[in-house]
Backbone:
C-alpha cells in the first residue's frame, strides 16, 4: 500500500515563516499517519521529468488529510516550488506515509524528550499533536533550538500548548536573536545548556532528535556522554538527504 | 505519466544512465543513521562470520588488514533518493572473507556494533559485489560514516551497507533486519526501486 503513488489534492497552503509553509494534502482512502512518519512527494514537469523528495508529516490525524511543513532550501530543486508556486487546488503525488522507527505511538508510556534543530521540529510536532490528542499521560518535553523567534514553526500553537498543557513543557534556545524581554542573549546550544534543559537520565526518557546532520550528531554525542543509553535515542537528519524535510 | 505540476522544471539529472529510477545525484556525502554513532577502537574491533553448523570465523583488526586489500570505485544509492557516483573505497572483498566458510545457507544478517542489523541474500555478498571497507577517498572511514569499517554492498540501497560492521550471520531464512522491519523493502535493489515494503 505504502509503495504506491497516490494522487493528493492540495487543500491548504499557509506560510509558516518567511521561507516555509505548511501544506495540507488530501488523499482518498488515506487513514492518517503514525506520529513521526514521512511521505515522499513526486513532482512531474510537463515533459515527464520527475523529482522525488521526502517530507516529515506535521500532523497526526487518522483521516484523509495530512499536513507537511516545507522549508525552502537555497538552490533546492523541489522545496522552492512547494513553498512558492504550489497552489490550493493543485495535485501532486505522494507515497507513504512510511517509517516505523522514528515514530511515537500513544501506547508508548515512557516520558519523552524531543530535541529539534530548526525545521527538524516538524516530525516532533506530529508527536506532540498525537500526544495531546491522546489519553497518554506521560510527560513530554520539547527543546527547540532555532535562530530567531521569527524562524519558529507552529509558534502560536506551541506557545499555547507550552502554557496550557499539563503534560508538555516547551523550552527554546535562540541562537541568533531572542524575543523582546528574553532573559538571556542569543547563544549556541552547548552540552551544559542542553543537559540543564531536558529530562534527566534517571527519568528514563525516550529521546527523539531531528535537525541538520551536525546538530543531530552533536546532540546525540552529548547525550551518550551524559549517560543516556544509546538505545533510548532515536535520530532523524535532513541536512544530507538533499536537505528537503 | 503522473500529475503534471505546471511551472515545475527541476534540475534534469535523470538523463544520466548511472542514476537508478527516482534518484538524483549529490556531490556531498550525507549521513543517515537511526541513533548515536558507536565508538569502536580498532584494538577492540572484530569481524565474524558464523555458519549454520556453529563454526565461527573471526578476524582481529590486524588479521583483517593482513588480508588482500582492494580498491573499489562504485556508485552508491540511498533510499532517500540521493546517489553519489564514482565513490572510492578500499577494503576486503567478502569473497576473501568467505573463502574458508562452508554453508548451505542462502541468506545472511549483517550485525553492527550498536545493534543495527540488515538482511542480505548470500548471493548478493559474493562474486565481487560486496566488501568490508575501511577507507573512503584515501582516508580512514570516519566514525559518522561507519568507521572503523562498514559493509559495502553498493548494488543495493545503501542501508544494506551496514555501518560499524561487526559480522555476518548466515541464516536459512530471509529474516528482516532493522529497516526491513520498519517499513523498508526486504531486498532493496535500486534499479527495481525496491524502497518500501
Residues:
Amino acid at each position: 500500500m505504502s509503495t504506491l503513488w497516490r494522487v493528493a489534492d492540495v487543500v491548504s497552503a499557509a506560510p509558516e515563516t518567511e521561507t516555509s509553509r505548511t501544506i495540507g494534502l488530501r488523499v482518498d482512502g488515506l487513514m492518517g499517519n503514525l506520529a513521526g512518519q514521512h511521505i515522499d512527494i513526486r513532482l512531474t514537469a510537463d515533459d515527464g521529468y520527475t523529482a522525488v523528495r521526502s517530507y516529515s508529516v506535521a500532523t497526526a490525524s487518522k483521516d484523509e488529510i495530512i499536513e507537511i511543513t516545507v522549508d525552502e532550501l537555497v538552490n533546492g530543486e523541489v522545496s522552492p516550488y512547494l513553498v512558492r508556486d504550489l497552489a490550493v487546488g493543485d495535485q501532486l503525488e505522494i507515497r507513504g506515509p512510511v517509517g516505523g522507527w522514528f515514530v511515537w505511538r500513544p501506547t508508548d508510556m515512557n516520558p519523552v524528550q524531543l530535541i529539534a534543530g530548526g525545521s527538524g521540529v516538524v516530525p516532533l510536532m506530529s508527536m506532540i499533536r498525537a500526544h495531546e490528542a491522546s489519553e497518554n499521560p506521560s510527560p513530554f518535553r520539547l527543546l527547540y533550538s532555532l535562530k530567531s523567534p521569527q524562524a519558529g514553526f507552529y509558534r502560536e500553537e506551541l506557545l499555547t500548548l507550552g502554557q496550557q498543557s499539563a503534560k508538555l513543557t516547551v523550552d527554546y534556545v535562540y541562537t541568533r536573536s531572542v524575543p523582546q524581554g528574553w532573559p538571556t542573549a542569543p547563544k549556541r546550544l552547548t552540552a551544559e545548556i542542553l543537559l540543564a534543559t531536558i529530562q534527566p537520565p534517571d527519568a528514563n526518557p525516550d529521546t527523539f532528535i531531528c535537525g541538520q546532520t551536525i546538530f543531530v550528531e552533536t546532540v546525540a554525542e552529548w547525550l551518550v556522554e551524559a549517560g543516556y543509553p544509546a538505545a533510548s535515542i532515536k535520530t532523524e537528519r535532513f541536512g544530507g538527504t538533499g536537505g528537503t524535510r | 505519466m503522473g500529475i503534471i505540476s505546471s511551472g515545475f522544471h527541476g534540475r534534469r539529472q535523470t538523463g544520466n544512465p548511472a542514476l537508478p529510477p527516482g534518484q538524483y545525484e549529490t556531490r556531498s556525502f550525507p549521513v543517515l543513521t537511526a541513533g548515536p554513532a558507536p565508538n569502536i577502537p580498532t584494538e577492540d574491533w572484530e569481524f565474524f562470520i558464523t555458519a549454520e553448523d556453529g563454526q565461527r570465523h573471526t578476524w582481529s583488526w590486524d588479521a583483517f588488514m593482513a588480508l588482500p586489500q582492494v580498491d573499489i570505485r562504485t556508485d552508491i544509492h540511498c533510499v532517500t533518493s540521493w546517489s553519489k557516483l564514482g565513490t572510492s573505497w578500499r577494503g576486503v572483498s567478502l569473497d576473501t572473507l568467505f573463502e574458508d566458510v562452508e554453508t548451505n545457507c542462502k541468506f545472511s544478517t549483517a550485525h553492527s556494533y550498536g545493534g543495527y542489523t540488515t538482511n542480505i541474500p548470500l548471493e548478493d555478498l559474493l562474486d565481487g559485489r560486496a566488501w568490508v571497507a575501511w577507507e573512503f577517498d584515501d582516508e580512514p572511514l570516519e566514525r559518522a560514516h561507519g568507521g572503523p569499517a562498514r559493509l559495502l554492498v553498493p548494488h543495493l540501497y545503501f542501508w544494506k551497507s551496514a555501518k560499524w560492521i561487526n559480522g555476518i550471520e548466515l541464516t536459512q531464512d530471509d529474516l528482516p533486519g532493522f529497516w526491513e522491519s520498519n517499513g523498508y523493502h526486504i531486498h532493496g535493489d535500486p534499479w527495481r526501486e525496491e524502497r518500501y515494503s
Confidence is low (pLDDT under 50) at residues 240-245 of chain A. The CA atoms of residues 32 and 209 of chain A lie 23 Å apart.
